[in-house]
Amino acid sequence: MKTKILLAVIFFVSAVFGQSIGKDHSKLPVECKTCHACDQPTKRNPCLVPCPREEMITIHMNPEDSPDVITIDQFKGQSDLYSKVVFSHRLHAEMSGMSGGCAMCHHYNPPGNVISCVDCHEKERKRADITKPDLKGAYHRQCLECHREWSTDTGCESCHAQKVKPGSPEPKISKSERKERVHPKIIEPTKKVYKTDDYENGTLVTFYHNEHTALFGLECSSCHKNETCAKCHSQFEKVAEAEPSFEKQHERCASCHDTDNCESCHTTKELPPFDHGKATGFILKTYHADLSCSKCHKSSKTFTGLNKNCVNCHEPWSAETFDHKVTGVILDETHTEFECENCHVESYSVKPTCDMCHEAEISFPKKIPGKRIK
Amino acid sequence: MHEHMKPTPLPNKFFTPTVVLILMIAINGLIFLALRFFFGIGAVTNLDNQHPWGIWIGIDVAAGVALAAGGFTTAALGHIIHREHYHVITRPALLTALLGYTFVAISVGVDLGRYYDIWHPLIMWNGNSALFEVGICVMIYLTVLYIEFLPIVTERFIGKVNLPGALSKLNKSVDKLLRALDRGLDKTMFIFIIAGVVLSCLHQSSLGTLMVIAGPKMHPLWQTPVLPLLFLLSAIAVGFPMVIMESLIASKSFGLKPEMDVLSRLGRIVAPLLGIYLAFKIGDMFIRETFVYLTDFTLESVMFSIEIIIGVVIPLRMFLSEEVRNSRSLILTASFLVIFGVFLNRLNNFLIAYTPPYAQNGYFPSIGEISVTLGFIAIEILLYRLIVKNFPVIAVPVKQTSPKTKYSIRGI
Amino acid sequence: MAKQSRRNFLKTAAAVGATATGMSVLSPKKAEAAPENILSVDRMGVLVDTTVCIGCRRCEWACKQAHDLPAGNIESYNDEATFDKKRRPDDTALTVVNKYPTENKPHVPTYLKVQCMHCDKPACVSACIVGAFSKKENGSVVWDGSKCIGCRYCMVACPFQIPAFEFEKALEPKIMKCDFCFERTKEGKLPACVDICPVETLTYGKRSDLIQLAEERLKLYPDRYKNKIFGETEVGGTSWLYLASNDFQKMDFPKLGAAPAPGVSESIQHGIFAYFIPPVAFYALLGGIMYITKNKDKSEEE
């Protein structure tokens, strides 16, 4: 790779990705057509397509593993009026989670190391190949594409410090200044109630945000698709959009929920938080209440139609293998001798019967076949 | 009958109350003119980058050229088709054209940002430019007009050369020179007369080509590839009405009997010429289907309607009537309407139809522009008066029927 | 009229005819008497991608610096209030940036740099009475102050209403317009505006390459752009080309066809002056009529 300078926007990537577009890249897991326009590219005429951008991303990593701060000083020493940029990389990587992810900036990366902008974008503005913007243009376009969306301030000083005069030395940036550049923690809402006056049969939709993230285990990006900083930060007045279509309005919920039964979401009263017992008739008690949904509902999308029988999830139990303690009752010596079915005649969800051995006045839960621990 | 008419310097007094008034208008114009040369065009005019041309071009130049068309139409009628009958009006028409074109040239100079470079087109050519053609043709035609006027000067001075003081010794040789010049002119005058007509036809039409390049910036009611033809036809049509009006006003002003028989005969030619112009104008409108804009009731559609109805249709009908042609006041009215129509047409083409794409506000001439324009018209009138008083231009009845004087203009 | 006079008429008429013919023979020279107007295949241009412009107006500043116009402090160009009014290039600024709402992204404005488009078939070059404008080999349309007489016909002719005039100057007023930094590009430098643009809204290159680049962008991002390259065909094509997400007419671009601006006017001109034949023929015709009517008069007299 022609990585001459690794000062700029660079990810330090593990050796796993150390492979480069070497002599035999035909075996790489990439379609030839992604890069080559013709059927039989040769070394002399590789007939490369113009920058394929997002079609050509092979690297992805978690923001936590990415560099924290990167100094962009490719134009060091030039007679520019503005100084280098201290770029809070990790912060931006985190923020990008709600939209396009790494590929928003790293829009092109063939197998190998994470490549820097200067590897593709030429520093010289006067150049033969004008299909890609030059380096300065590429940097500014990349940053400003988002920044101008949420901030009217496209002024140079919001990223660069201004020098005293062109060509004078770079101003020092203190460590504390670097540290300040963090995004405040986003406080997640617990409950949101939407008014839907258009739908008369139920003018309220109660949405428990915390349930969806914590309980149902959804990622932010599974709902917040392609959202930019401007979603929260826009300094522009929001222009009232024309009445969005039904599909558009229900898009987010409908990716999981059915839209056939309106009343399941649109109600006349605010709904209480999700209650498994009420909603399905299967009350989650002690042990089950602590489980995440996906423990039982294996398919991430459909939560319905699960058989309530224990054996649907559990291995068939036997007296030898089952530790009765987990139910909250430790069986006394007498009762451990019995088979499960002796007491649990019908189903485990129904209370056990004692009349196999005992008189009618002895019954569960008045009398307990051991010691209750919960 | 015209044998009894002979061009003579008029004996009238120069100053009358009206003349004083005109003189004041002229002085007012000259004051603003001085401001333009000291402080720039922007100081005196309402012109800006959206409206590069104002009334100094639209009226002084474009309308000025059109209304000076009397010169070449009369020359064509009197000298080329040899209608001797009209010779009494060729000299006044020539003088009007001469003054008209002189002031067209002066107006161009006033409007040019670098007036001192006005000679550049003589050596810096651009054959693609309609303006270059207009400029060159007007320059040559102006020269031709002065040559055509020379015999009037020689006629005035031959035998009467009277230089003051010491120069009086030269009297004889100057007189000889004038006689030689007169003889030379007499033999070659026809070249200049034909050249004058050709040059006029060329630049009258090219003046129309001028605005074609403005393309969509010009309102479709006027923007047409046949603009040069329309300009030529309207110039030809306005020539005789201009001569009629000027002859009637001059005769009134100098207390002469109007040449009604000549003017009525001239009036007979006007209707067909106007008719041809109207036919092309209406035909063009229907071919390009621009009549749809007529119902817009915008400034443009109203101005176009006025131009056509009041400026062409009504005078056309009037000139068709013998009663009108024989009535002094009616033929004056009809002529005035034609002149108004052509004047408005030039104004419309150059100013009203020109709708600059980024104009924040419309153009209306400033006091300075109006003053200069009026001032120039005033000076023209004063010069006309001065010249007809001193040179044999206007024909007056001569008592004795003498043979043609040697130095009258024979046969040209 | 005397006989001698008539013979004289013939003689002079012949002389005039000969002169006229001479002129018509020489007339190809006249056709060359037009300003330099080169349409090179390799002419340069600029592709303006208005969707990336951030409205920093550094191009305005750089332009003034490069043309010795008072440019002022660079910070003063950050003033948002400048965009309240739509501005046009004039004698103090050869290029200006205006702000428009974006159709598909109402919260992000579209900025539009305006300057001379450097037409392939420039109306000003065709119109100028003294040929003070010329289209150079590298695509720039340049004004020559040593020829200009200040008639402002170029301003009437320009389909984009670009040339500006120094109305306030009493002496040596100039026609002011973008010259594509002719002096800078001659030295191998970039035009000042292209050089300074931080986002490279302005891509400088061969016009043919730029059109290819623009077409590729339109194909790759159909949602981002209106499917149009302004200047590709307008008035016969321009050296400066524009991409935008807005309708171009809504950004005050004039609605223009593909016909070159000087087309009709030049064909009329060349029609009337086709090798001087029509004027000379007309002259001869009038001469003939004059001769015949004169003879008629004569015979009537006799």
Overview features:
heterotrimer; A: 374 residues; alpha+beta; Cytochrome C3; 3 domains; three-stranded antiparallel beta sheet; two-stranded parallel ribbon; 15 helices; 23% helix; disordered N terminus; C: 302 residues; Alpha-Beta Plaits; two-stranded antiparallel sheet; 9 helices; 9 strands; 36% helix
Written overview of the protein:
Chain A has 374 residues and is an alpha+beta fold. Chain A has 3 domains: 15-171, Cytochrome C3 (Alpha-Beta Complex); 191-236 and 245-283, Cytochrome C3 (Alpha-Beta Complex); 308-374, no CATH class. Helix content of chain A is 23%, strand content 7%. A 3-stranded antiparallel sheet of chain A has the order 5-6-7. A two-stranded parallel sheet of chain A has the order 1-4. The model of chain A is unreliable at 1-20 (pLDDT under 50). Chain B has 412 residues and is mostly helical. Chain B contains 14 helices and 2 strands, in the order E-H-H-H-H-H-H-H-H-H-H-H-H-H-H-E. In chain B, strands 1-2 form a two-stranded antiparallel sheet. In chain B, helix 4 runs antiparallel to helix 5 (87-111) and helix 11 packs antiparallel against helix 13. Mean pLDDT of chain C is 85; it is low at 20-31. Classes of the chains: A alpha+beta (374), B mainly alpha (412), C alpha+beta (302). At the B-C interface, helix 1, helix 2, helix 4, helix 7 and helix 8 of B face helix 1, helix 3, helix 4, strand 6 and helix 8 of C.
